Amino acid sequence: METSARERHAVVIGGSIAGLLAARVLADHAERVTLVERDRPPATGEPRAGVPQDRHLHVLLEGGRSALETLLPGVTRELEEQGSPRVGIPRDVLQWQGGGWLRRSANTSSYFTGHRPRLERLVRARVSADPRIELLESTEVVGLEGDASRVRGVLLRRRGSSARRETRALAADLVVDASGRGSKAAAWMAALGAEPPHEEVIDTGLAYATRIYRHRSADDVADCLGYYFVPDGTRPHGGVIMPIEDGRHLVTFSGLRDDQPPVDEDGFEEYAHRLPHSVLAEWLAGAEPLSPVYGFRSTANVRRRYDLPGRRPAGFLAVGDALCTFNPIYGQGMSVAAFCATALRDALAHPRRTPSTRRVQRALLAASAQAWTICAGADKAMPGATGNALGSTAADRLAGWYLRRVQDRSKADSVVGAAFRGVLALDKPLTALFAPAVLRAALFDRVREGPAAPPLAPEDVARVAP
User: Fold this and answer.
1) How many CB atoms sit inside 10 A of residue 357's CB?
2) What is the model's pTM?
3) Per-residue confidence of the chain (466 residues) as pLDDT tens digits?
4) How far apart are CA 371 and CA 376, in angstroms?
5) What is the 3-state secondary structure (H, E, C) of the chain?
6) Does the N-terminal peptide bond of residue 90 adopt cis geometry, omega within 30 degrees of 0?
7) Which of 197, 302, 409, 440 supports an S-S bond with 325, CB 3.0-4.6 Å?
8) Contact call for residues 312 and 189 (beta carbons, < 8 A)
């Protein structure tokens, strides 16, 4: 950020979790932060119009929870007090993956599965309490101020039928784009005479549909908190049931192009029979629907490479989905938003390196690298995937071969399983998959099959059952 005798001002575009956390970090480096949000956030924890996937399942992975806690100390306790369920893995979930059932051994990781709008409301309350941060609601950014060498502010316009359609300029030393997967920054860059970022795209055509239910009986199909059928290249149908607040559950089905889950009520429940086992259909038979069926179709992985050489202005950064958008089926978005905020914090506070725009943008991209590696690697293998980032090298193919061996052994090997789940939870680095014990098992141990039938009870319960 430019330094001078005058007040330093940062503008953040977008008031979702990524934008709120970025504003929280920037408040320690600027006298004033303006957060521009095109919606008027609801007073209660209801879905927001500007977040089209708000009604669907979101999870806060273990790595994301840890990062969020460093930014907003005590947030884990607040989530629990609000009733957000914390689901342990693998004990608390009946999971089918890679052609078989996973052992329900002791938990090695966990994630929060509460309704996303409630988490956003909690974060907004914490962030907006800072007097250095101003929230402009019902206001949209329609362009950037400046030129190809430097961004110096944004162009704003009020929304609503009674608002005048005039624009006004808001000067800033730094502009951060947290406007999500629908970011218009490429067009804004071009309007300044700058180069838009190169976009890497992988699109499986996956679509999903979600509905809220409450189970009618205290006796569930299985002694677990959630159910998960993980899709892959040979079995592309997915299904998940996870608890949210107030005794409710979100049920989601996913499928690829030409075989997408329907959004009519009868077709939605019928789709459960496409899964490899009837357990989700059995659960639905004893559940009461509480909402319509909501569909979502925009699930491509898109990574915007602001870090690459090009004629781009200083004073502009992208975070969260505006930088790297993931297939939502992997549940990484909220965690990566927190990682971007911690990367921004660390880059701006580095004691020896000047936080130039490109250096900070590289740090932000690095914060999303592991999540991208996971989802891009999995989605490349899905049938019918399209995009300009589908190519693979010999090293990619070798890595894919090794990771398949790790995944095959993770279903029943507790050591391999803990490492694999830790990486997927973004709580351990990818190098954890090459620890000596994991490497030895992946290369030399035979595959031990998981349970032959759905493990309806955790292992510690099953052992003492009469």
Assistant:
1) 18
2) 0.93
3) 544 446 899 999 999 999 999 999 999 999 999 999 998 877 766 777 777 788 889 999 999 999 999 999 999 999 999 999 999 999 999 999 988 999 999 999 999 999 999 999 999 999 999 999 999 999 999 999 999 999 999 999 998 755 567 899 999 999 999 999 999 999 999 999 999 999 999 999 999 999 999 998 877 899 999 999 999 888 889 999 999 999 999 999 999 988 899 999 999 999 999 999 999 999 999 999 999 999 999 899 999 999 998 999 999 999 999 999 999 889 999 999 999 999 999 999 987 777 899 999 999 999 999 999 999 989 998 999 999 999 888 988 999 999 999 999 998 999 999 999 999 999 999 999 999 999 999 999 999 988 999 999 998 764 433 3
4) 8
5) CCCCCCCCEEEEECCCHHHHHHHHHHCCCCCEEEEECCCCCCCCCCCCCCCCCCCCCCCECHHHHHHHHHHCCCHHHHHHHCCCCEEEECCCEEEEECCEECCCCCCCEEEECCCHHHHHHHHHHHHHCCCCEEEECCEEEEEEEECCCEEEEEEEEECCCCCCCCEEEEECCEEEECCCCCCCHHHHHHHCCCCCCEEEEEECCCEEEEEEEEECCCCCCCCCCEEEECCCCCCCCEEEEEECHHHCEEEEEEECCCCCCCCCHHHHHHHHHHCCCCHHHHHHHCEEECCCCEEECCCCEEEEECCCCCCCCECEEECHHHCEECCHHHCCHHHHHHHHHHHHHHHHCCCCCCCCHHHHHHHHHHHCHHHHHHHHHHHHCCCCCECCCCCCCHHHHHHHHHHHHHHHHHCCCHHHHHHHHHHHCCCCCHHHHHCHHHHHHHHHCCCCCCCCCCCCCCHHHHHHCC
6) yes
7) 302
8) yes
Owner of token pair 């966990």: 110
Per-residue tokens: 17:
């979790």
Q: Give 328: exposed, middle or buried? Use CB within 10 Å, 0-12, 13-18, 19+.
A: buried
- Distance of alpha carbon 396 from alpha carbon 380, whole angstroms: 11
d(CA 457, CA 466): 13
Measured CA to CA, the distance from residue 144 to residue 151 in angstroms comes to: 7
- Measured between alpha carbons, how far is 20 from 178 in angstroms, rounded to an integer? 9
Q: Which amino acid is at 238?
A: G
Which tokens belong to 296?
């979502």
Structure tokens, 274: 């496409």
